[in-house]
Amino acid sequence: MAIEWELYRKIRQLYLVEKLSQRAIAKLLSVSRKTIRKYCNGAVLPDMRNRPGREAHLRKVVENDILRLLEENKDLPKKERLSGTDIWKYLVQEKGIVIGETTVRKYIRELRDCHAEVYLPLEHEPGDSIQFDWGDMNAFIGQTRLPVSVLCAVLPYSGSICAFVYPDKTTLSFLHGHIRVFEYFGGVSRRCVYDNLRTAVKSGSGKKAVKQDDFKRVEAHYGFEAVFCNAYSGWEKGSIENVVAIVRNIAFTPAPHVDSYEELQAHVTNRCLHYVQTHSIRGHENSIRHDFEIEKRALLPLPQTAFDPGFTTTALVHPDLTVFHEGVRYSVPRDFVGKQVTLRLSPFHLCVYYKGNEIWKHPRMLKKQEDQYVLEHYIEILERKPRAIDQAIPLSRGIMPDPCKQFLNLCQEKNAKRQLVDILLLGRKVERSRLLWALEQANNTLNPNLSLVRFFLDADLSKEPEDIITVQHKGLSAYDKLIKGGKNHESEPRK
Q: Of the candidates 108, 112, 77, 74, which has an alpha carbon nearest to the alpha carbon of residue 90?
């Protein structure tokens, strides 16, 4: 147990100045000789509660184990890392070391302080690099709240940012986003800096990273050098780490409500433009807008031909008029049944080609069984097989113009589906735009049917009448005279 400083002063003076023995000092001060022996030589201070030898020995025993556990856990998510209590239990139960939990916690704090990461402040040259990273955001598309993937990019010298929204983080979206970033900035940096994304790296990390083949093609075409950070060294691309948070704050807080990915992208782009136009970075002499104008001139020029990152594959058109890709059926016109077609994929669309000509373009579905049956592809079959109309999937949940959907909701006839097929068959004789106009007019009555659509087609009220009777008037002064009795009263004073 430690003693008071005043008692310590007396022991030291009696021992050093008075030259008394330890026995005499203990008797004079009524203190045990063990205490006098501990403090008389000045080896131990009153507030030192542990003997240095034992403390140093105990720490040496557990230090390697604690450092190893800390190193193994630093790469895990925060919730999965070992706590100080977990490390203490390991030392006691697994290693059989007698040590207090408080002592282990103290060692952990000290070891973390001794082995803390240190960073160098960095300065970037104009056009030297673009940093990339993905961010996970949320948005309401239609009435559904969806997670979206946002590829964020920043020019570290100026701080200019941009972000592009995708439904996933696939290689296709990753490469497509690069092209949009380069076009947005108006040039290419000499280096592009990444975390070790699987869409870019097959294996390894940092200088040992092995690049994906598709990514190497983009790198070669745009003439930049890809640089990958060392594992778990996000500080090497600190600018982009901040930008992901900035984009989330300015464009996704609160979650935006839009009708499509196109509208969401327009929203994000506008927010990024506003940020660049109005913001200044602390410590920078100039605004982002000013420095971006300087940096644009330092970027490498874009290639004369943009890289097409679209993936292609082949598929057979089945008897149900569909091609099958990634668990989804996409319909095509009837003429291509049994033929081998080419599917070209982009992050948002699936285009069907036959002998180099595009025959149909579908929105790309990301979930299985979100089949895309286009109603107009099945009209001829429905005409030949009228008994299948009520059970036909293209009529119940197929892709059709909005006026057709409204007709099925509003028509009170029992054979509403049959009538819609007959209406669409009228498209053989009239233009599509004129037929949809007539269908909209019928829907406006709130009780549409085939007869009403035919009536509006015959009346064709969308056209201007050809024979219009016009009446040309001469001057009206003669009528004024008649009203005034034929006399000129201009000179008469008013009463």
A: 108
Give the Cα separation of 352 and 340 in Å (integer): 10
Q: Considering the chain, what is the average pLDDT of its residues?
A: 85
Q: Residue 155 and residue 224: Cα distance in Å, rounded?
A: 14
Q: Pick from 412, 471, 405: which is nearest to 440 by CA?
A: 405
Q: Which amino acid is at 407?
A: F
Interior/surface letters 207-229, b for 16+ CB within 10 angstroms, e for the rest: eebebbebbeebbebbebebbbb
pLDDT at 485 over 90: no
Whether residue 243 contacts residue 152, with contact meaning beta carbons closer than 8 Å, is answered with yes
Residue 493 predicted with pLDDT over 70: no
Contact 167, 149 (CB under 8 A): yes
**pLDDT tens-digit readout, 320-347:** 999 999 999 999 999 999 999 999 999 9
Number of alpha carbons in the 13 Å side-chain half-sphere of residue 274:
10
Report pTM. 0.65
CA distances from 333 to 322, 337, 391 (A): 9, 8, 20
CA dist 452 and 450 (Å) reads 5
Residue 362's SS3 state is strand
pLDDT tens across 237-246, in order?
Answer: 555 568 899 9
